[in-house]
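Table S2 (continued). Query chain:
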Amino acid sequence: MTIRAALTRLASLSVSGVSHNYDVDSIPDSFSRVQLPALLVLPITPSTSKITRTSSEGFQSIAFSSGPRTVTVNITHLLLVAPTEAGRGVRTHLPKVVDLMDAYCTALAADPLLTNTLLEPTHVQVEPGDFTYGHTTYHGCAFRHTWIIQV
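Corresponding output:
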């Protein structure tokens, strides 16, 4: 399988309560309220983002001569729920973020190999918080996937 196929499959993950899913070819530069909540497939970290990665993350290649040739890929699937607003506390949107985190885990549990595009089930680190995308900060959650793909 290919990295592109896995990214496309991740973008098509149907999460109850999410209005829009964006593949790498369709990610907008900014969002209106009617586009939220949204999931963005991010194989890179936008320069305006507060999402941090350590230097060891990103695309990693590992191949074993006696086993399958694989590539390890780290991808962020970013959930943006609502913009942060002055005068409105986190409590306003926190229940929705938590409910969507549960819905995401349920959807992923139904397809952990992303329709067999992955060699092994995805490993996901769940990081709720506030994330800057474009020029706006949003309440949301970063789902950090680590994939093993056979090449």
